[in-house]
């Protein structure tokens, strides 16, 4: 019985693929200007549908639904490109002898993506306080002035950020 549900979901995804893959691929191509990356992201969109499992038969506006998924993938793509470029800019400033291997670069970029995703889940002021403390070495008093809140609030923000980091480490 569960197998019938899986078969039904695969049929729905196949139908959506047949009906909308060309449109979706074209949309990505216009956004990116790259045929190969457009095809990759279009495929990723349908992989997300497969991973979703149940509920696909409740989609009444397939293009709007696909566009929502595609937009999220595109935002993730652009964000990754920004992070990669920032990292590559830093590497370019290093002497060639200390430059990491391509494998090490890929690992660092993946880690940076995970950190970015973690930070994105924090409330804005908590994230800002955490970054000012950890990246800029600012004191809590200075951060409080910068953010226009009390030093006590900065301590709460930092505790919240640290707790968030710890829960993420436990989830791994």
UniProtKB/TrEMBL annotation:
InterPro entries: RNA_pol_sigma-70-like, RNA_pol_sigma-70_dom, RNA_pol_sigma70_r2, RNA_pol_sigma70_r4_t2, RNA_pol_sigma_r2, RNA_pol_sigma_r3/r4-like, WH-like_DNA-bd_sf
Protein known as: Sigma-70 family RNA polymerase sigma factor
Domain RNA polymerase sigma factor 70 region 4 type: 113-165
Domain RNA polymerase sigma-70 region: 16-82
Species whose genome carries this gene: Stutzerimonas zhaodongensis
PANTHER family according to UniProt: RNA POLYMERASE ECF-TYPE SIGMA FACTO, RNA POLYMERASE SIGMA FACTOR FECI-RELATED
Family of this protein: Belongs to the sigma-70 factor family. ECF subfamily.
Keywords: Sigma factor, Transcription, Transcription regulation
Molecular function as annotated in GO: DNA binding; sigma factor activity
């Amino acid at each position: 019985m569960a197998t019938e549900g899986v078969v039904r979901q695969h049929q729905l995804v196949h139908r959506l693929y047949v009906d909308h893959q060309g449109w979706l691929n074209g949309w990505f191509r216009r956004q990116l200007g790259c045929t190969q990356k457009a095809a990759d992201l279009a495929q990723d969109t349908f992989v997300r549908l497969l991973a979703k499992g149940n509920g696909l038969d409740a989609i009444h506006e397939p293009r709007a639904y696909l566009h929502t998924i595609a937009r999220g993938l595109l935002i993730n793509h652009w964000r990754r490109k920004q992070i990669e470029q920032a990292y590559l800019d830093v590497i370019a400033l290093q002497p060639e002898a200390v430059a990491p291997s391509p494998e090490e670069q890929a690992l660092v970029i993946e880690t940076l993506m995970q950190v970015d995703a973690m930070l994105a889940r924090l409330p804005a002021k908590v994230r800002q306080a955490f970054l000012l403390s950890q990246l800029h070495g600012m004191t809590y008093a200075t951060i409080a002035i910068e953010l226009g809140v009390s030093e006590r609030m900065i301590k709460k923000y930092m505790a919240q950020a640290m707790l968030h980091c710890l829960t993420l480490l436990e989830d791994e």
